């Protein structure tokens, strides 16, 4: 069996072809419809584009070639290669490279739908940003090797809308890559802070998404503007003292007698979140399609995290066991995140989580205090925060908690958990003889 990508030379430019052979009677050839500027851009030994390259979208071309290789290898793994025929390979090839049956253009790579043209159109940041959202919602990112998640796309679209509003504020119709510089950054931050009155963390999120899209565009040779990488073009951020629920409060929630089945389901899903640390999307995926395994008489939850693609295994503790036992071994039924957020506050109120709670955050450049009964601040994300904080207080090492939570660095982890300085000092004094 033989499979390879190779160049087919044309009068002006070359195209990337594919050939598959499996015995004398099985042969499949097709064009990827990818056009390259120069044969020097192609590495024949590695069967991929050289980087950097004079060909537009060279990095994305490599991404598509790798995607096809991965699918073909999966097929070879599942099936005996002796029985793999043209139809199976053609199906995979069409899935990755088919461009609605259109022939390859001599001047652009159709599947990316971005013209390789001169002039201002190719320098339009907004045009690229809109294409970016469409393309990477269907095609794997060259960095994460997967399509953008629904949550990431929502945040990216929100950031784009903010940029468009800023353009309207300035009464400009086009934003070019080279416009994104120190002057733009300062005026944009001023607009988000003083005109829109956004929180510091939301402003940071918008800046981060701007930097992400600029980074992709730079790697795809859309521009040479590196201002977005400079120190001044930073993602502003602040640590907010959002509440968590301690063990006593969680016990009170578990002990509540809830006659209404929907409230009972909300409570149980929330408690599972408080005892697994799963992000809400992963938690609800687990509720819909649970995977519980057993090893050494211990039941474990196994799940692949959407955000990081990491596979995690979480022990089922006594709280989750009680939830399973009262439901005859079954998990609670799936409920949408909005329904959980709608009811969890009233459940916490009934559990007497009513002490006043205060936190500060920067809004419109000013520190604003938010003070309400604690139950009013509780939402689905409180469950994950509660797990991490309670696990830390229990003495679980941070690296073990992070293996479940998916936090990449201890700095981010310690900003995330809610450990009171006084409580931490008391813990240190009891744990270490030197401090006694």
From TrEMBL:
Gene3D superfamilies: 1.10.150.130, Intergrase catalytic core. The keyword DNA-binding applies. Keywords: DNA recombination, DNA-binding. Residues 240-429 form the Tyr recombinase domain. Pfam families: Phage_int_SAM_5, Phage_integrase. Signal peptide: none annotated. PANTHER family: PHAGE INTEGRASE-RELATED, PROPHAGE INTEGRASE INTD-RELATED. Belongs to the 'phage' integrase family. This is Site-specific integrase. It comes from Flavobacterium myungsuense.
